[in-house]
Amino acid sequence: MGNKLEEARKIINEADAKMAELFVERMRAAEMVYEHKKEFGLPILDEAREAAVIEKNAALVEDEVIKGYYIDYLKKLMEVSKAYQYRMQSGLNVAYSGVEGAFAHIAAGRIFPEGNRVSCRDFKAAYEAVVSGDCDVAVLPIENSYAGEVGQTIDLLFAGGLFINGIYELEIHQNLLGLPETSVEDIKKVISHPQALGQCHDYIKFREFATEEANNTAVAAKMVVKAQDKSVGAIASVETAEIYGLKVLEANINKSGENTTRFAVLSKVKATSSFSNSVLMFTVKNEAGSLAEAISIIGKYGYNMTALRSRPLKKHSWQYYFYVEIDGTTDTEEGRSMMEELGHVCDKLKVVGTFAPRTEI
Fold first, then answer.
1. What pLDDT is attached to residue 92?
2. Fewest C-beta atoms under 10 Å: which of 47, 84, 135, 234?
3. For residues 309 and 197, what is the distance between their CA atoms, to the nearest angstrom?
């Protein structure tokens, strides 16, 4: 019996020594993974990749009972790896437009939990912070399910050289906020961004509140704190209430429960992925049928367009450029052939970036 115990301990000690060496090797690889993600502006959490790794590695274990424990081990190992990468992420500078508590600030925090969020005065300043190298990535809104596209961001993407390396959906919940000692019955006027006021129009009308516009919802919260007036409330997020010490008087007051903003992560470097959707931007030649021909070419190569938008060219009246989202990557033989053919009908054509579809934060 003693010999068996000693033999088992010897095997465990030898296995532990090998595992320690392999663990260090794996963590060094995790460093390399993080450096790649930092360069391309990608988040640390990648649930699809984790699931694929677990499925692949679990298949290496034949014993079904041990396999279950091995899957648990892999999950814990990945948690350790992510924790290490998050520690490295503490030096990542993330630009966003607005002030602390704005929805862009919230989105940036959910995508890059350990990153340093850098407030910028507007979309252009956040964009230029990445161009200049002051920040590593920028998180900017590109579309809202209630108000439509965010033209300023789309224009920056068309004119500039940064790439989209991810699009993330943040569900927006608007709430009535007030000073800590305030009740709903005390409120006579609400302050918020015009879009938020519009989203909550029915509620505001029902309550017979007066309204005042602010640059964004977080600024509205700051105005309420500064006024110290129980009759003044703000419409903003729960996170904003926590940041500025306000109380949520009524939750989820926006008209539509399906109010989602899509935020793009922008970086200097274009990421590539066979699992990603792509964003194209182009102008077409000023000839009859040019746009129809461009759309036909995209369909010809089997790509489904999930979005098509036009925006006016700033320097040319009555001329437009086009923003297109397609299912699939252009980094394939079909994709390269499509881009080559599009080049014959487009004056300006570029792949602005890639993203995984329907990624919620």
1. 80
2. 47
3. 26
Q: Are 355 and 328 in contact (CB under 8 A)?
A: no
Spatial distance between the Cα atoms of 199 and 217, rounded to a whole number of angstroms: 12
Q: How far is CA 280 from CA 140, 298, 317, in A?
A: 18, 11, 22
Quick one: angle between helices 2-40 and 64-89, nearest 10? Answer: 40
The confidence band for 5, taking pLDDT boundaries of 50, 70 and 90, is confident
Averaged pLDDT, 313-327: 80
Asked if 45 contacts 25 with a C-beta cutoff of 8 angstroms, the reply is: no
Q: Which residues pair with 175 in a beta bridge?
A: 236
Identify the CA nearest to 280 among candidates 319, 312, 316, 306. Answer: 306
List residues bridging with 117 in a β-sheet: 94
Residues 6+ apart with CB under 8 A from 254: 172, 173, 174, 196, 199, 200, 203
CA contacts within 13 A on the Cβ side of 58: 18
Contacts of 59 (CB under 8 A, 6+ apart): none
**For residue 277, what are the contacts with CB-CB under 8 A and spacing of at least 6?**
306, 325, 326, 327, 328, 329, 354, 355, 356, 357
Rounded distance between C-alpha atoms, residue 180 and residue 200, angstroms = 22
In the predicted structure, residue 273 carries a pLDDT above the cut 70: no
User: Global pTM?
Assistant: 0.71
Q: Which residue has the tokens 């993203």?
A: 355
Higher-scoring residue by pLDDT: 258, 12: 12
Distance CA 164, CA 359 (A): 14
Q: Does the pLDDT at position 271 exceed 80?
A: no
Chain centroid to CA 5: how far? 53
Distance CA(70)–CA(57), nearest Å, equals: 9
pLDDT for residue 1 is more than 60: no
